Structure formats: C-alpha cells, structure tokens
Design the sequence.
C-alpha cells in the first residue's frame, strides 16, 4: 500500500484531479482523505463529484456532510428514500425508478442550482407518482434548469401552479395534448429543442382563438403521431403555427393506419403544411414503421416502397434536406431515402 501510495504521489495534480472525478464521492474520500495535506487539498478543490444512492443506501448518510457542496451529480437508483433538499447544491439529478407515492416529495423540493434533470423508469411505477413529476418543474422549483427528460409514459396537463421557466433549453416529455403543448411553449420562452409524444386521445384540427408565437424553438420531434385517411394530419397545423422559426422537424408516426395503402400513395407527406408555416426549415425527417404480417405481406413489396419513395421525393422537391425512414419491422433492414445534395444530417431519437 505504501508503495502504491508513493507512486500516486508522483503524479501531477492535473492527472489526479481528472482521475478522482471518475470515482464516486464516498469511495473517493474513504480511499484518499487524510492521507496527507496534499491529498486533502486536492479533495477539497474538487467541485464536480457524483454520488450514487441505491436501495442499499436507504438508511445510509454521507460520512462527512462537508462534502455535500462538492457533489455536482446525484444519481438515485430505484426506490431509495432520499431527501433531495439535503442536496441543494447539485447541478445534475438522475432518478432511476420512482416510489409509488409522493416520489421524493418533489412538490416541496427546491434545487436552486439544478441544470439537468432526467427521470428513467425501469419496471412499474404508479400513475400517481408519474403525474406529479411535472409540477415542481413548471412551478420554478428549479430556476436554473436547462435540460429535462421525463418518462415516455408520463402524461402532462397544465395546472394553475405553472410559472415561467426561462432557463429551460431542452425538454423531452411523454404524452401531451395541444393545450398542454401551448402551455409548455408559453412557460418556456427560451426552449430550443422539444420532444414529445402526441396524446393518445385522437385530436382533430381546431381553430385557436389564441396561440403563442414561440420564436426560439429550433428543433421539434413529435412521436406516436397519428396520420390516417380520415383525420389526415390531425392538429399538426396548430403545432407548427406556434413555432415559425423551426429549423428541424421530425415526425414519428404510429403503425395502426398502415392498412390503407392507397392513402399513403396519395399523401403529400406534410409538404403543404410545411410550406405554409416553416419558411426557415432546413431538415425534415419522417419515420414510417411498417410491419410484415400475413395480412399485409402482399401489399408491401419492393415496388410499394419505391412508389412511396418517389411520392416523398416529389412532394418535398429538395426545398430542404428531407429524409424518409421506412422502418421495416420483421424485414431485413431499415430503409432510408434522402433527397438533398448536402451530406449534413442530425441525430434524431
């Protein structure tokens, strides 16, 4: 041990600091605290440490509360009973799994320095616990929040507690309807990137008496979008009406409407709506999942995909970079059709 310690002491401070930041805070202090004055000074200089609390740590507290201000990232795994207000200086919070009732008492949590929040669900969680997630976010409990990712299965509805969240730049949420969409844009005027799933209840086009003109949103990703022969594109017109400066649009449609092949061959692939609302659009991605089943096996052959390709190409006519992704479920590979001279592309979840 003495030999290993002497070798470590030969390393410059810069390498030791970079190495220490890969270690969980408790392991780090247990291993290196009080070795000598140099190591103590190095430990006290660190300000981007991380702490992982899991179900094993339910009744465990930090050995040294003086290290709390040095914790930059807190990761809480599964149903750990942790009082988040004890970690008021953290900047990143990752919650993996949620308790079934009053998850971490989020309605009373105030984290004034939090910049990054991610909630990941593994296994089952109660509807109650998920529905409470958005309340502290949009009631300014995290005034410095820049990135927020909520579970896909979460459903958000605007409430009277919502206030302005000026710091938020990137937001990923679950199912929302049109008025919650407008509520989010109103509450987050500086939002740049927005991912959401369309509400499962079928929404038809409506005339908005009031709508927001959100000038800062540049990237919009809509998943589980229903597009069919009866309701056509639903309320997509209203979505795009609110974001005139959009530069990137990605639509992920559902699959249950795929039986009506004729409609797809006559579909304008949203070209008309885009031309009306999005004069600054640079990239458009359309994700089309197709399942091979006994019922539609004969309908979707290579000629069919070629016709869809040509229709998509004709409709968008190289006005911007456009990509049609045909996700062939139970087929051999993912087919992507791109129509633009440029090689640039964007990652899309």
Sequence:
């Amino acid at each position: 041990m003495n030999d290993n310690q002497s070798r470590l002491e030969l390393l410059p401070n810069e390498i030791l600091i970079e190495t220490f930041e890969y270690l969980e805070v408790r392991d780090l202090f247990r291993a290196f605290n009080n070795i000598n004055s140099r190591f103590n000074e190095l430990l006290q200089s660190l300000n981007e440490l991380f702490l992982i609390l899991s179900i094993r740590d339910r009744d465990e507290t930090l050995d040294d509360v003086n290290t709390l201000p040095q914790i930059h990232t807190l990761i809480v795994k599964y149903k750990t009973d942790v009082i988040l207000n004890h970690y008021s200086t953290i900047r990143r919070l990752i919650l993996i799994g949620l308790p079934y009732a009053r998850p971490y008492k989020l309605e009373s949590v105030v984290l004034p320095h939090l910049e990054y929040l991610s909630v990941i669900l593994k296994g089952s969680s109660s509807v109650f616990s998920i529905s409470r997630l958005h309340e502290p976010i949009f009631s300014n409990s995290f005034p410095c929040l820049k990135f927020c990712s909520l579970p896909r299965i979460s459903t958000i509805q605007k409430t009277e507690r919502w206030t302005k969240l000026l710091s938020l730049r990137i937001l990923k949420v679950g199912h929302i309807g049109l008025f919650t969409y407008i509520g989010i844009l109103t509450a987050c005027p500086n939002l740049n990137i927005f991912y959401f799933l369309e509400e499962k209840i079928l929404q038809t086009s409506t005339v908005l008496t009031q709508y927001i003109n959100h000038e800062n949103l540049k990237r919009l990703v809509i998943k589980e979008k229903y597009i069919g022969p009866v309701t056509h594109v639903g309320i997509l017109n209203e979505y795009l009406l609110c974001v005139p400066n959009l530069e990137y649009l990605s639509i992920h449609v559902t699959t249950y409407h795929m039986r009506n092949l004729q409609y797809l061959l006559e579909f304008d692939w949203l070209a008309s709506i885009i031309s009306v609302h999005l004069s600054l659009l640079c990239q458009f991605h359309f994700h089309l999942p197709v399942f091979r089943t006994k019922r539609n096996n004969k309908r979707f052959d290579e000629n069919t995909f070629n016709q869809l390709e040509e229709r998509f190409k004709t409709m968008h006519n190289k006005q911007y970079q456009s990509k049609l992704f045909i996700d062939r479920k139970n087929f051999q590979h993912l087919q992507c059709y791109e129509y633009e001279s440029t090689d640039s592309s964007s990652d899309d979840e």
Q: What stands out?
A: The longest strand covers residues 283-291.
